[in-house]
Amino acid sequence: MDLFGNSNDWDKKLYPILKKYKGKKHPLEYQNLYQLVVMVVLSAQDSDANINTIAPPLFKVYPNMESLAISNVEAIIPYISKVKNFGNKARWLIEISKIIKKDSNIPLTMDGLIALKGIGRKSANVIMREAKMPAVGVIADLHVIRVAPRIGLITETKDGIKAEKQLMQVLPQEIWGKIGMAISFLGREICRPIPKCIECPIKEICLYYSKIIK
């Protein structure tokens, strides 16, 4: 039963977007797990496009966790100064690097990841998804928070933790690892703030669409 009291085969209803975005890499242009972790931390409240722009010079100087761990906040700030909240993010990255020390120590569990500064459940879910680890949650980024209520999956909320909790309640666990990014890609490409409903592959099951065509 979903939050609206309906029995829904959401895995079947959402299959068109699961198929459309199957295996699609996250928009962050990372080359390895170390880069992914750093870029995920930097991307909070910022755009993936901006992080993709500033990342190459940063990684040229700091190619791995070991190099970051022997640096300091003041040294890395010039490379990330165009990122929102760069001061805090610089401190978080240095702290993470000094804890992890080398790339092979990067944790790939929810508990291990969220114990690190600057990494919450959303970021941890992204890292685990890209590392192909079994999902223990659902990615609930800003796109998912906007789109999922439109579809009728969850009630409206601006809280990512609440959104994820609702999604975990209504969606079968076997699609947790795929559906978050599928909804996110749908939000990036089609279900924009002003949605292009006519292009949507799941408009027939969408609560929002059913209201606008009445």
From TrEMBL:
SUPFAM superfamilies in UniProt: DNA-glycosylase
Organism: Flavobacterium flabelliforme
Full protein name: Endonuclease III
One example GO MF annotation: endonuclease activity
PANTHER family in UniProt: A/G-SPECIFIC ADENINE GLYCOSYLASE/ENDONUCLEASE III, ENDONUCLEASE III
Keywords, in A-Z order: 4Fe-4S, DNA damage, Endonuclease, Glycosidase, Hydrolase, Iron, Iron-sulfur, Metal-binding, Nuclease
Gene3D superfamilies: Helix-hairpin-Helix base-excision DNA repair enzymes (C-terminal), Hypothetical protein, domain 2
Domain HhH-GPD: 42-189
